[in-house]
Specification:
By secondary structure, this protein is an alpha/beta fold. The chain has two domains: 113 residues, Enolase-like, N-terminal domain (Enolase-like, domain 1, 2-Layer Sandwich), CATH 3.30.390.10; 265 residues, Enolase-like C-terminal domain (TIM Barrel, Alpha-Beta Barrel), CATH 3.20.20.120. The chain has eleven helices and 15 strands. Strand 6, helix 7 and strand 7 form a beta-alpha-beta unit. The protein is globular and about 65 Å long. InterPro entries: Enolase-like_C_sf (IPR036849), Enolase-like_N (IPR029017), Enolase_C-like (IPR029065), Mandelate_racemase_C (IPR013342), Mandelate_racemase_N_dom (IPR013341), RHMD-like (IPR046945). Keywords: Magnesium, Metal-binding. This is Mandelate racemase/muconate lactonizing protein.
Length: 392
Amino acid sequence: MSDAIREVRVATVALPLPRPLKLGSMEIVAREYAAATVTTEDGLSGRAYCLTRNAPVQALVERLVTPHVVGRSSAAVEQRWDEVQRANVAVARSGVAMRALGLVDVALWDVRAQRAGVPLWRLLAEHEGGAGAAAGGDSPGATGPRGGSAAAPDGSAPALLVAAYPTPDRTPADVAAEVLAGAGRGFRRVKISRDPDPARMRELIERIVAGLPGDCGLVADCGFVWRDAEQALAEIAQWGEPPLAWLEDPLVPEDADGCARIRRDGPFPLGVGDEVTEPRTYAALLDAGALDVLRLDVLAVGGVTPSLGVLARARDAGVEVSFHVYPEISVHLAAAQPRPAWVELFDAEVPGGNPYDPAHLLVAGDPPLRDGRWVASDRPGLGLAFDEERVR
C-alpha cells in the first residue's frame, strides 16, 4: 500500500450563536467552520478544522491546495507545504490562503503521527530534538517568563478559559459572577473581552480581580479595537492599574511599533498575535519589543509546519506562548514545548450550550481537563473526529 494522498475532502459548517457576540469592531452572529479530511492510499485519515471568518476557505483548499497534494507522498509534510505555497506564490504568501494551507498541513501531521503510532505531541517533542513534554520538560515547579508552571512530562498544558464577553444587557456584577465561577474550577488564566464603556470595564475588572484565587490571572481581550496606540492608552488609563496577566490584541498585530508603545507606556503586559497569517509579523513584533505573550493561531498561520518556527523564535526571545482556539489541535503543540504554553478553551458544558463558540457540536476529541490543565490524547495522531452528520 502507498502513503500517497488519495483525497482531500472539505466541508463548510455554519453554527448559529444563541445571541450576537460583539468583539471589538466585529459582530459575530454565527461561527462558520471549514473541516478537512485527508485520506491516504493506505487507509489513514488526518483531520483538521478552522474558523472561516466568512472567507471561502473550502474553495481555496479545493482550488489552491488539493491539486498540488493528491497523488503525492503524505510523509513529506514540509515538502508538500513548500510546494503548495510555491505553486500559489502570487496569492498564498499570507492572508486567508494560509488558512486553507493550514488545514491540509495539520491533517498531514495527523497522518504522520498516526503512521508513527504515537500522539502528535510526542512526535513533535521528538521532532524538536527531545525538548518539552516527551523529554520531561523543566523541573517540577519551574516557571517560564512572568510565571506559569513548566510543561509536564505527561503531555499536558495549562488551560486558559475564555470566561465571558460583556454585553449591554448584563451588569458588571453579572459578568464577574460568570468569570469567577469558571475560575473556581481550577483554571489559572481566565479571559474577558473589553467592555466599550470604560467605567463598566473598570468595575468589571475590579470585581473579578477581587474574587480571583491567588494563582489565577485575568486576561483582557480587546479584539484589535483601537486604531492606534494613542487611542488604546487613553482608554486603558481609565481602567486603573489592575494586575492583568496581559492585555490582548489592542491593535492589529501588523502595527508592531504601536504595540511596542502600548507595552512600554501602558501598565500591562502585552499579548498579541490572534489571526496572524505571516510568521514575519511575529518577527517584527519581537524585534520591536512588543510582546510578553505571543498569541499563536496554528491554522491561520499555515499549520504545524510554520508554527514550529514561530515557537522556536518565541523560545529564543523568552516570551510566553498562548494558543488561539482549536484546543484539540493546539494542545499537541503546547504539550511538546519545554516552557508553559497556554491553550484556550470555550466551556462546552454551559447549560443550554456555549454562547461564544459551539465548535464542540462539530468536533469530538476535546482533551480532558485535569486540575486546570489540558491532557493531550495518547491516541496516535490528533485523536480528532468530526460529527459526520454535520460534515458532509
